[in-house]
Amino acid sequence: MKLQAKEILKKIKVEGKPENIAGMARFGIKAGKVYGVSVPFLRKLAKDIGKDHLLASQLWESGVHEARILAGMIEEVEKVTEKQMDKWVSDFDSWDVCDQCCLNLFDKVNFVDRQIKSYAEAKEEFIKRTAFTLIACLAFHRNNLNDNDFDKYFPIIEKNVTDERNYVRKAVNWALRQIGKRNKNLNKKAILVAKEILKNYKENKTAKWIANDALRELQSESVQKRFS
């Protein structure tokens, strides 16, 4: 018999560890309803539950931090609409819910490119973070995409390198690094973009950090060795 939303929420609450909440706060996770449940536990729970669109919606509406991560794990990607994605993304209140939903669900929807372009223009910190987290996830997950699919994201990255908000700048950096680790051709292009950022934003501390950090990894021996 399938578990109901109330039963799942009870399991999450029972599994919760108050000491973990303090640890999460130190990493910038300060959601409203949070129990301190680990992601591995949620992954196992998701595997036991299976994919379920209605249940995912119910868990999301609970507002519980861990339930929302779980919702992204069990949602049926083919049933996700742009309206639903916009609603969930507008509800993001922590970087980990944002990243987990992108990694487990949103990077697989067939309208992801439109959403990236839209979210990159948003004013809200976590909505904007979503755009660049999705770019990083596509670079990591989507083997069916070609280099041209990623070329169009370089101007979006360059446009946002001066956003000094922590969760945006880290995601912009992540997107640039992940594209540059995809293959030799994109590595060269990402390095050129990073150098261009340094040239164009000499006085901007955030842009310089994004570019220098990306160059440090993209030009590293370990990354270059993969392409040699």
How are the secondary structure elements laid out?
Elements: H1 5-15, H2 18-26, H3 39-49, H4 53-61, H5 65-74, H6 82-91, H7 95-104, H8 112-119, H9 125-141, H10 147-151, H11 154-159, H12 166-180, H13 184-200, H14 205-218, H15 221-227
Helix pairs in contact: 3-5, 4-5, 5-7, 7-9, 8-9, 9-12, 12-13, 12-14, 13-14
Summarize the entry for a quick read.
This protein has helices at residues 5-15, 18-26, 39-49, 53-61, 65-74, 82-91, 95-104, 112-119, 125-141, 147-151, 154-159, 166-180, 184-200, 205-218, 221-227.
Shape descriptor: elongated
Strand coverage percent:
under 5%
Weakly predicted, low-confidence segments:
none
Sheet bearing the most strands, described?
A: none
Global structural class: mainly alpha
**Overall pLDDT, averaged?**
93
What integer value in Å does the Rg equal? 19 Å
* Distance between the ends: 53 Å
Q: How many domains make up the 3D coordinates?
A: 2
- CATH architecture descriptor of the largest domain: Alpha Horseshoe
Which CATH first-tier class of the largest domain would you pick?
A: Mainly Alpha
CATH homologous superfamily label of the largest domain? Leucine-rich Repeat Variant
The total count of helices amounts to 15
- Helix percent band: 55-70%
Describe the protein in words.
Helix content is 70%, strand content 0%. The chain is an all-alpha fold and 228 residues long. The protein folds into two domains: 1-110, no CATH class; 112-228, Leucine-rich Repeat Variant, CATH 1.25.10.10. Helix 3 packs across helix 5, helix 5 (65-74) runs parallel beside helix 7 and helix 13 runs antiparallel to helix 14. 37% of the residues are buried. The model has no long low-confidence stretch (mean pLDDT 93).
